Amino acid sequence: MLSRAVCGTGRQLAPALGYLGSRQKHSLPDLPYDYGALEPHINAEIMQLHHCKHHAAYVNNLNVTEEKYQEALAKGELLEAIKRDFGSFEKFKEKLMAASVGVQGSGWGWLGFNKERGQLQIAACPNQDPLQGTTGLIPLLGIDVWEHAYYLQYKNARPDYLKAIWNIINWENVTERYMACKK
């Protein structure tokens, strides 16, 4: 009897800082041996308790931490502006993803800064149309939704690509752009 029979998992734990573009929730890995394999030195009950309760708690806490990590990366004045202009970081993500999914054919989803209003705004541009030239917004964050950006990995599942893209956004760069355009 392997550990999966008792804990009910058959999936492997992904590396904590593995390939960010395809990060999935971590799951409790199976032990490569039976819980009783270490007896008489360590009994099966201790191994099962440690694996199914303690180790599982660490894995679950890692998932919770990684969910909060993205919001923490966008911090300070940028995060305050996102909350002010969109209500919350989650609402901002939803709105930018919706605008990006909605691009017909090829183009870009954007977070831009409206200098006249002093506000962040979301926009979408078709093809290679520039954000500032077509909307007047100063580009802070662009998401490429041309098929070449994701098709080999995500096929025609643009929403899946857009969910994954949040794992690799360089928030330090976005913050620098925001601070520079506010001057």
TrEMBL record:
<dbReference type="GO" id="GO:0030145">
    <property type="term" value="F:manganese ion binding"/>
</dbReference>
<feature type="domain" description="Manganese/iron superoxide dismutase C-terminal">
    <location>
        <begin position="75"/>
        <end position="177"/>
    </location>
</feature>
<comment type="subunit">
    <text>Homotetramer.</text>
</comment>
<keyword id="KW-0479">Metal-binding</keyword>
<dbReference type="GO" id="GO:0004784">
    <property type="term" value="F:superoxide dismutase activity"/>
</dbReference>
<dbReference type="InterPro" id="IPR036314">
    <property type="entry name" value="SOD_C_sf"/>
</dbReference>
<feature type="binding site">
    <location>
        <position position="50"/>
    </location>
    <ligand>
        <name>Mn(2+)</name>
    </ligand>
</feature>
<dbReference type="InterPro" id="IPR001189">
    <property type="entry name" value="Mn/Fe_SOD"/>
</dbReference>
<feature type="binding site">
    <location>
        <position position="144"/>
    </location>
    <ligand>
        <name>Mn(2+)</name>
    </ligand>
</feature>
<dbReference type="GO" id="GO:0005759">
    <property type="term" value="C:mitochondrial matrix"/>
</dbReference>
<dbReference type="InterPro" id="IPR019832">
    <property type="entry name" value="Mn/Fe_SOD_C"/>
</dbReference>
<comment type="similarity">
    <text>Belongs to the iron/manganese superoxide dismutase family.</text>
</comment>
<protein>
    <recommendedName>
        <fullName>superoxide dismutase</fullName>
        <ecNumber>1.15.1.1</ecNumber>
    </recommendedName>
</protein>
<dbReference type="InterPro" id="IPR019833">
    <property type="entry name" value="Mn/Fe_SOD_BS"/>
</dbReference>
<feature type="binding site">
    <location>
        <position position="148"/>
    </location>
    <ligand>
        <name>Mn(2+)</name>
    </ligand>
</feature>
<dbReference type="InterPro" id="IPR036324">
    <property type="entry name" value="Mn/Fe_SOD_N_sf"/>
</dbReference>
<keyword id="KW-0560">Oxidoreductase</keyword>
<dbReference type="InterPro" id="IPR050265">
    <property type="entry name" value="Fe/Mn_Superoxide_Dismutase"/>
</dbReference>
<dbReference type="Pfam" id="PF02777">
    <property type="entry name" value="Sod_Fe_C"/>
</dbReference>
